[in-house]
Amino acid sequence: MEIEAKRQLIEELDKSLLAHAAALGQKEGGPTIGDAYKLQDLAERYYYLKVEHEFTAAEVEALLDFADPLAVACACWEENDHERSFPICEIIDRIKPYERFPTKQGELRGQRQAQQIVEAKARMEREMADYRVSLQCLRPEELIDKSGEITAMREALNFMADSYEFQQGDAETLLRMEKPLHFVASLWPSDLDTLLDISDLVSEELATAKAYQQEAEPVSQGPAQPEKLSIRGLLHATMREANQRQPQEDRPQHKKEAPNL
Questions:
Q1: Pick from 226, 227, 176: which is nearest to 206 by CA?
Q2: In tens digits, what is the pLDDT along the chain, a chain of 261 residues?
Q3: Can you give the three-state secondary structure of 197-241, one letter per residue?
């Protein structure tokens, strides 16, 4: 197992050096002399680690935690005050690279979140397409009555697709909803002046919905499949919590009533 882990680390160091070299070649405006020296330092540390350094099992495990183990090893080298040794784990404990360099786990979380954002946007696009189809059977006077809802749906879709900055967990929360676009549209203000703080409003309500989803999850012995919660249930939970947090007379009047779903 230790031999396999070391082989994996060496492969990661290979990839790291090549990635730094490729990034240097793609740098806008071209590399500088300083960039070339930095790459030379990386190459020297790479050679030492691959050919000369006697890794301990703990050092291998520690470096494999990072998305760029070569950069972390170089940071440790710069802080090494031992003349005849290079105790990587001791230096890692001292310089705390977890606060400076991305870990593999964090990188995977970021990739998963990016994929969920793409899926959430696609889900809302499909929901809007279905909504448009549902409008085709309405009479003109019914469409007039729904004009505010239609506007909110359209603007909410454009906002979530182009302007909203997704926070951690937002996309996952939307994907667990039966009708995520209706949820966002239900928060849409009738007063255009309040659009300036719509991001904060959506973020706050998504956090409330996420908390409600977590409370509603059934307890089981094994991993449970996420259950889609109805938009009506989420809205009722959001409104109930808002009522508990804030007296009626102090509540801002910039939300529209949730559309009938």
A1: 176
A2: 578 889 999 999 999 999 999 988 888 888 899 989 999 999 999 999 999 999 999 999 999 999 999 999 999 999 999 988 999 999 999 998 888 888 887 777 777 888 999 999 999 999 999 999 999 999 999 999 999 999 999 999 999 999 999 988 899 999 999 999 999 999 887 665 555 578 888 888 888 888 888 887 765 444 444 445 554 455 455 545 544 444 444 444 444 444 444
A3: HHHHHHHHHHHHHHHHHHHHCCCCCCCCCCCCECHHHHHHHHHHH
| Tokens, residue 26 | 């793609």
Phi, psi (5° rounding) for residue 222?
Answer: -115, 180
Q: Which residue reads 């090494």 in tokens?
A: 80
Q: List the structure tokens of 257.
A: 């009533």
Q: Looking up tokens 């469409």, which residue turns up?
A: 143
